[in-house]
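quick one
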Amino acid sequence: MLTVSVLLPIPVDRPYSYSVPDGMTLAPGDLVQVPIGPRQVAAAVWDGPVDNVDPEKLKQVEKKFDCPPLDNTMRRFVDWLANYYVAPAGMVLKMVLRVPEAFDPPGFVPGLRYAGGTPDRMTPARTAVLELAREGGAWTKSGLAHAAGVSASVVAGLSNMGILEPVEIPLPNLTGDPDPDHSVTELNDAQQEAAARLCGFVEEDAFTASLLDGITGSGKTEVYFEAVSAALKNGKQVLILLPEISLTTSFLDRFEKRFGTRPAEWHSDISPKKREQCWRQVATGKVRVVAGARSALFLPMHDLGLIVVDEEHDPAFKQEDRVCYNARDMAVVRAHLGNFPIILSSATPSIESQVNAEQGRYQLVKLPQRFAGAELPELKVVDMRRNAPPAGKFISKILIDAIAHTIEKGEQAMLFLNRRGYAPLTLCRVCGHRFECSECSAWLVEHRFRRQLQCHHCGYSEPVPEACPNCGTLDHLVACGPGVERLGEEVDAIFPEARTIVLSSDMTGGVKRLRLELDAVANGEADIVIGTQLVAKGHNFPLMTCVGVVDADLGLANGDPRAAERTFQLLSQVTGRAGRSGQKSTGYLQSYQPDHPVIRAIQSGDRELFYSREIEARRVAGLPPFGRLASLIVSANNRPDAENHARALRRAAPAGSQITVLGPAEAPLALIRGRYRFRLLLHGSRKDDIQGFIRQMIGNAGKERGSVRVQIDVDPQSFL
Ligand code: ADP
Ligand code: ZN
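structure w/ adenosine-5'-diphosphate:
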């Protein structure tokens, strides 16, 4: 009897051995169903030696799915990722095998077709149906009735008589076939040159990583579409990763304009049915282009020939729960393993990619100008120390005047504040009581529209009380600080006639409503838009000529080594929303520290200076990409257990290594969802084997007892 290695989508590091029933042939990559304990799970036949045990003693593979196998690249990718992020290989595979319903071929839709003959008694309704049916082809019952303009019972009657006979209709493809030449954009010289280089890499059909670097509006999308087109002409599949894909309808529309059909979408908001179809049709090669969020990286595309990572600097590509990984970095790995090109696109590249480009590991492809003379907004810093609005208000006179001027001209203004809700803190004016989440170290955020106090970490909410729960005084609660809802109130009071929209990710109506609202803004149906960071991403608002950043200092003050970079990227992106179609536009940064290097860099527009300073600072401190970091986050449902295990891990650090261990320290977010958290930070040079070091620490520290959990985060982006 034969034996195979099978990797299961559970927290295991290596495959298990199973015996193969007579008559079944299996090869690495095949998807199978196997028993584990009392359950049956979908898993994948894996590479590597099988255990040396008597096959008679092994459990048997239950079933082989009728599905294309995971190819060699995909399997090596899973192993590579598991090794790099010190994650169980099974949990990485789980991200690939997300949709077990897709492993069997899809069913058919029941349909009808003309079988011959005519009914004894003809009616006009029957005639209408038969005229269509006689043209041939298969119809669904309701489709035929609808097309003939009759009720479904007429069709049912003809079917009962045997004049229409049942037939199985295969499910339609999720998307059409993109046409590489559907509507070719005429590129300007700089764009042409950039596109030619990228297409050259596609033609070489080998690994090259390129950084496509150009300010917002310079035509990066148009340019990488040419590379997509070249890959399609070579018969390859293409994957485009986007942050916040669920909101980028405008991207899908643009793609459709260029290629005649939408790409398949992959993100958390698509229906289970669509998800199943997408997975299957990607695996069988029917879907040629996928535009997706980070998890699309794990789709089993078998003929992948190009990956594009748009807004490559975006923090949304980093996953922080379960397996911590960075989809941007892993996309490069996947391209490398598959030996095909990858394009990283951004107006404000990450320091990591910038350094890779400078050191020649990535090809630098630059677009120096905005398309067709569209100018970047002029940036003004509003010194809030001298222009402070009255207490409880947040918009300076300078910004109010600018908004008034903008909407008078029939153009749009945007106010950006990265804070959901009405106010970040609520307190009692009488006793000073502050409303705090009992499960997290966080204030409760007031959402006035919903009359709730909400925790943004665990989702807990309670109604806003009339009396202070501490001193019992009625009607003396005050809101401290601004959220977008509160800005909305302030704007309504100043501009009662203006059409104002407040957009944030938690508004009622969800993603659908948000998409509609964003379209409405793009169509000019709003005068003033107030939003959190989701309005900063990728949307094209042609009438937007004034952007005000309400609190440009937000995000500069935390202990995150990337704070400056992040602020620079976010604010550049926000102000880059303005003036995309040629009008003169202005961005206002309200700041209490106008001399801060980041604020100055943004205002001066001297990007190169900002990057060179930031890169130098990282080099001196040995921070990524010049050194390596990893975090271990220890949590437990009580403080002593978490702290003790964190200390045990520290003691378990192997001696004689260059890697330094900082901590354990209580995490800045010391409590989340009732779990107490401690952090250890590992810092080494690029040459150090930080993964090996972590494995030894975990191995030496002994089992995690009780509620203790250790989360490993290699190349961490968040330090909270
Ligand atoms: P980026 O991705 O760099 O922000 P886009 O590709 O979105 O830039 O281009 C900005 C705007 O300019 C879009 O509306 C796009 O359609 C338009 N555009 C860019 N290049 C061209 C071109 N060669 N011909 C026509 N329109 C273009
Ligand atoms: Zn909470």
